[in-house]
UniProtKB/TrEMBL annotation:
Recorded superkingdom: Eukaryota
Region spans: Disordered: 1-30
Catalytic activity, EC: 2.7.4.3
Adenylate kinase active site lid domain ranges (all copies): 140-175
Matches recorded under PANTHER family: NUCLEOTIDE KINASE
Gly residues: compositionally biased ranges: 17-26
Keywords linked to the UniProt accession: Kinase, Nucleotide-binding, Transferase
Quaternary data: Monomer.
Native organism: Gossypium gossypioides
SUPFAM superfamilies (UniProt xref): P-loop containing nucleoside triphosphate hydrolases (SSF52540)
Catalysed reactions listed for this entry: AMP + ATP = 2 ADP
Protein name per its UniProtKB record: adenylate kinase
Task performed by this protein: Catalyzes the reversible transfer of the terminal phosphate group between ATP and AMP. Plays an important role in cellular energy homeostasis and in adenine nucleotide metabolism.
Molecular function via GO: AMP kinase activity; ATP binding
Amino acid sequence: MNIVEGRLLSGRPRILNGGGPPGSGKGTQSPMIKDEYCLCHLATGDMLRAAVAAKTPLGVKAKEAMDKGELVSDELVVGIIDEAMKKPSCQKGFILDGFPRTVGQAQMLDEMLEKQGVKIDKVLDFAIDDSILEERITGRWIHPASGRSYHTKFAPPKVPGVDDVTGEPLIQRKDDTAAVLKSRLEAFHKQTEPVIDYYWKKGVVAKLHAEKSPKEVTEEVQKVLS
C-alpha cells in the first residue's frame, strides 16, 4: 500500500498490497509489481522467519515469543519491517505484503515511517465478493521461493505441480480449504477491512476489480501506479 504524495516527494514508491481477502490475487500481483517497479517485496512472514534464522536482536525476541506459543507483538513486527526497509535493495521503494492487518498495526506502521520521513504512497484494495473466492482458494498452488502463484483452472503451470521458471515443485498451503477460508474471511471482515477505511480517509486507496482475470488486474495495477 502506497501514497502518491510520497512518491512525488522522494521518488521511492511505497505500496501496501495487503488490501483484500485471501484468494483475491495479492500473491499473484506482488511479484509483477516487484519486478516492474524494481521494489523490494517485504512479506511479513518471510521477514520474520529470516530475522529468526539470522538471530538478529529482534529475531531472538520473536523466537522467544514463538517458542512460548505466543503471538509476535506488533512492536516486534514493525521493528523487523523497519530493519528490512533500511537495506540497499529497498532504497528504490518497497511493497509491503501481509501487514498491516489491523488499524492499530497501520497506525504503528505510519508512526515508524514518519520517523524516517516517508509515508505510504498507494494502498491496493483487491475488492472481490466472498462467493468467488472458494474456487480460487482450493485450486491454488504456490512456488514458495518466489511467491509465484498458479491455479489448476485459471492459471495452470505448464507442467502440473511444477514452477514454470525454475522447474521446482509447487506446494498447496494447508489453509487453502473451504473450511479454513470461511474463518479467514470472518477475520478479514472484522479486523482488516477497517484498515482499508483507515487509508481511504488518507486518500491513498486504489480499488481494484479483483474478480477479473490476472492479466486484467495487472493492467489495472499498472494504471494505478503509472
